[in-house]
Amino acid sequence: MSKAAKSRHSRHVPIHAILRRSTAFGFLLLLFLGSMDWFSWFKGGTTATRLFGAVPFTDPLAALEAWLAGGVTQPLLWLGAGILVLLAFVLGPVFCGWICPLGLLLDLNEFLQRKIRHLFRRKKGKGLPLLSPPDGFRLPLLLFVLAFSFMVGFPLFQTISPINLLAWGLVFGAWGGWILLGFLIVLEWVLPRLWCRSLCPLGGLYSLLGRFAPFRVCVSTSKAGKTLCGLCTTNCPMGIQVMENFTTKGFASIQDPRCTRCGACIDVCPKTVLTLGFCSSGRGAPSFSDPRSNCPESTLENPDSCLSGGAHGT
User: Fold this and answer.
1) β-sheet bridge partners, residue 251
2) 194: which of 108, 133, 151, 285 fits an S-S bond (Cβ 3.0–4.6 Å)?
3) Complete DSSP assignment for 221-259
4) Range of the domain at 159
């Protein structure tokens, strides 16, 4: 990346990061206020809440566990779950990217990691060890907790969920689960976003519900591939190969089910290739030619060397 591009990037305001942290903090604030007697229009916890004493919102995984564990069939439980399921059908797994209290904590934890790693690299000349979390475990864990609820009659995930433990500690003063939270935070310094990418069954459920949601990260195919910076891929907290699998392949949107619509890739994109909105899931021919096709044969083993400004980008 050129010095000018780096300068523009350094001055760029991460608007989506600010907004998603604000909405997650706002949800926590509402839970805290709702624990007070005088604040009546928002009551509940991370498992279920009620707005204005009438509109219910229920964690769909909590509803499934309650039903499988004990045959709970209260109409308000399923109405609240149905509202969030419908929202997931339309908006995708936005709870993970914009509401989840644990997501907020891990987002801030990752931000601190990046700052310390950068400082460590400047002082020591090398970075701290960093591993990529394995993918593909969320759905098996989702099936496990549902099967456990059915066979044992106990909602396991609702009891040990770090999401609930965090909210219970901050809002209701129940600090017993913070040992698990502390362990998870420390572990994520080596395996960033381990919980979100590999372990969270609720995230796995929302990824299924929002698989074909029309609200997604949209790609400007007329701009895609013209600035090879790689920031979209390297900054995706879910490990999605944004450039390699979508923007340079002619896709009109990011179609990976893991995408939480958090906007991290949008914040770092120097050419506004990416935006949040309602867009097609179609695919067309890329509107650009791969610049590596112009590399001489002498650089075929390392074609990136012939590209100015680096070869990985949006």
Assistant:
1) 283
2) 133
3) TTTTTSS---HHHHT-TT---HHHHTGGGTBSB---TT-
4) 14-213
CB neighbour burial string for 79-106, b if at least 16 within 10 angstroms, e if fewer: ebbebbbebbeebbbbbbbbbbbbbbbb
Question: Rounded to an integer, what distance in angstroms lies between the CA atom of residue 112 and that of residue 114?
Answer: 5
Of 189, 213, 237, the one marking the end of a domain is 213
d(CA 4, CA 11): 11
pTM for the structure as a whole: 0.84
15-34 and 101-124 helices cross at what angle (nearest 10)?
140
Residues 216 and 275: their CA atoms lie apart, in Å, by 8
Count how many domains the chain has: 2
155 and 31 within one domain: yes
- Predicted pLDDT of residue 100: 96
Q: Of 213, 234, 253, which residue sits at a domain end?
A: 213
Kindly state the average pLDDT of the residues 60-66. Answer: 95
Q: Within a domain: residue 32?
A: yes
User: Six-digit token pair at 314?
Assistant: 């949006």
